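User: I'm preparing a small set of examples for a lab meeting where we compare how different chains pack in three dimensions. I only have the primary sequence for this one, and I'd like the structure in token form so I can line it up with the others. Please keep the answer compact; I'll paste it straight into my notes.
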Amino acid sequence: MNTIAFKKLFLVLLSAAALSSGCLKKPQRPDPSATVLGGGAGSGYDSSLDPIDLSLLAPGTGLEGRGAGFDLNGQMRGVLEAVYFDFDKSSIKAEERAKLQAAAEHLRNNPSHRLLLEGHCDWRGTAEYNLGLGDRRANAARQYLGTLGIAPNRLETLSKGSLEAVRNADRETAARDRRVELVVIQ
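Assistant: Understood. Below is the structure token output for the 186-residue chain.
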């Protein structure tokens, strides 16, 4: 590259940097008492209404169909019990199968619901290994639900590996980390 072209490129870059750095004005912030949530006189804010109460939204906003118990992501946690696994295993224990049978019954009774099967591991092992193990656990639960007649399009899997595990946990805490969470989704 010759020096003239280099100087032109340098001037163009310098001009662009100068134009983008100091030419913008900061926006004027409104006085909080003059805003709707500020509660000032004539603001139109009714303090008896909860500003987070989504049930007051008019139909057609897209949020009315989420149903009771679902969060804003369309998930409902804690309805179904988690399925627990032995250390470094992805096979479903006989005593845990009743939880998956209850999940299948829930899906049969609620045809609009689906399940997200989140595979989790304890803190031991590498991140890569634990992601794979969490995936195997979630897929084992998916396969078992398939044998109970649940359609594959109603099941999703996700491996969280050891991302949410308690580091250096004792035996009981680590045992609670080895699970598949059954999250109801719409």
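A couple of notes for your slides: The helical segments are 3-21, 97-109, 127-147, 171-177. The domain at 70-185 is CATH 3.30.1330.60 (60s Ribosomal Protein L30; Chain: A;).

User: Perfect, thanks.
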